[in-house]
């Protein structure tokens, strides 16, 4: 059975995440302990006890989500889970996919995403950037509204999450103008997101430059599975190509809809979300309505066994 793994990014974190899986699998907390030794603080305690505001800080959310994805992946492999035919990650999740594919060392990745989060926060002072989810509008209408709302500032589609669900990002005032334009054009909902970092927009250019410099010193191995990168919906296997995709990802949109469509077109019959929550699973079901394509998420022992069974039949 051809199957794919997908790794969630920022926004899927929550207090108590992975607690059910950790109660049955000591490997979960062991993975978080590895991350904590790199970070210098107790990452598992933060994820289980909070406070939520601290977990929500970009430089802490990113290592937390990476550790969660890799902890789940390690449990999968421990129980005999096979390598998928394809992998992808939503934004930050691409780093989880790289580690799972063997292209990047886990400890190195933890330090790298902490740096990435710090660079992103420093690129745009708090309050100057914004993101908003637009529901029930056509891609072309959103693109046109962003062009109209820019007025010399920056606002553009940042996440093509699923048909009818697009996230825009840019300067706070320009995002506000785009929201009003889209509401007037009949968008079902336009919701300002509780973030201050306008990810996947040209405002992240200073962070992309810093990341590019940092990546020059990072060793990448040939991945066992070539990941699909959402910035161009292509597989990248060599180190320079991976570095380029990771830098471009910060300033370009996440093309999640196209990524899932590409997986299905390649013959994938099962897509497994590897990490906390079911955000991607919900998006995937809206993208691919063929009920013969199974959409699963590993959250606990029962869902792990269901995924193991589905990926060998």
UniProtKB/TrEMBL annotation:
Name by which UniProt lists this protein: Malonyl CoA-acyl carrier protein transacylase
One GO cellular component term noted in the UniProt record for this chain: cytosol
Annotated source species: Povalibacter uvarum
Pfam hit, one: Acyl_transf_1
UniProt keywords, alphabetically: Acyltransferase, Transferase
GO biological process terms held by the UniProt record: fatty acid biosynthetic process
MF terms (GO), sorted A to Z: [acyl-carrier-protein] S-malonyltransferase activity
Family, per entry: Belongs to the fabD family.
Top-level taxonomy: Bacteria, Pseudomonadati, Pseudomonadota, Gammaproteobacteria, Steroidobacterales
Leading EC class: transferase
Catalytic activity line of the entry: holo-[ACP] + malonyl-CoA = malonyl-[ACP] + CoA
Malonyl-CoA:ACP transacylase (MAT) domain ranges (all copies): 6-311
EC number: 2.3.1.39
InterPro entries: Ac_transferase_dom_sf, Acyl_transferase_dom, Acyl_Trfase/lysoPLipase, Mal-CoA-ACP_Trans/PKS_FabD, Malonyl_CoA-ACP_transAc, Malonyl_CoA-ACP_transAc_FabD, Malonyl_transacylase_ACP-bd
Active site: 91, 200
Record keyword 4Fe-4S present: no
Transmembrane residue ranges: none
């Amino acid at each position: 059975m051809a199957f794919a793994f997908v790794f969630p990014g920022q926004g899927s974190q929550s207090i108590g995440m992975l607690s059910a899986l950790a109660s049955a699998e000591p490997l979960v907390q062991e993975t978080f302990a590895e991350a904590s030794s790199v970070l210098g603080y107790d990452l598992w305690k933060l994820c289980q006890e909070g406070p939520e505001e601290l977990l929500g800080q970009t430089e802490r959310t990113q290592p937390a989500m990476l550790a969660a994805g890799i902890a789940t992946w390690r449990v999968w492999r421990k129980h005999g889970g096979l390598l998928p035919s394809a992998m992808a990650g939503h934004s930050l999740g691409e780093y989880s996919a790289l580690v799972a594919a063997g292209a990047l060392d886990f400890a190195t990745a933890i330090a790298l995403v902490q740096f990435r989060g710090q660079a992103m926060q420093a690129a745009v002072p708090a309050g100057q950037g914004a993101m908003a989810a637009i529901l029930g509008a056509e891609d072309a209408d959103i693109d046109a509204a962003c062009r109209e709302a820019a007025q010399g500032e920056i606002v553009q589609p940042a996440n093509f999450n699923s048909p009818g669900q697009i996230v825009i990002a840019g300067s706070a005032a320009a995002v506000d103008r785009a929201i009003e334009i889209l509401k007037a054009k009949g968008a079902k909902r336009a919701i300002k997101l509780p973030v201050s970092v306008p990810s996947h927009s040209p405002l992240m250019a200073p962070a992309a430059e810093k990341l590019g410099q940092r990546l020059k010193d990072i060793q990448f191995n040939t991945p066992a599975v070539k990941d699909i990168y959402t910035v161009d919906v292509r597989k990248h296997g060599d180190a320079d190509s991976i570095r380029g995709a990771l830098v471009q990802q910060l300033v370009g949109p996440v093309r999640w809809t196209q990524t899932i469509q590409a997986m299905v077109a390649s013959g994938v019959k099962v897509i497994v979300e590897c990490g906390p929550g079911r955000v991607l699973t919900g998006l995937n079901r809206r993208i691919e309505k063929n009920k013969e394509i199974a959409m699963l998420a590993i959250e606990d022992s029962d869902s792990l066994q269901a995924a193991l069974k589905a990926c060998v039949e």
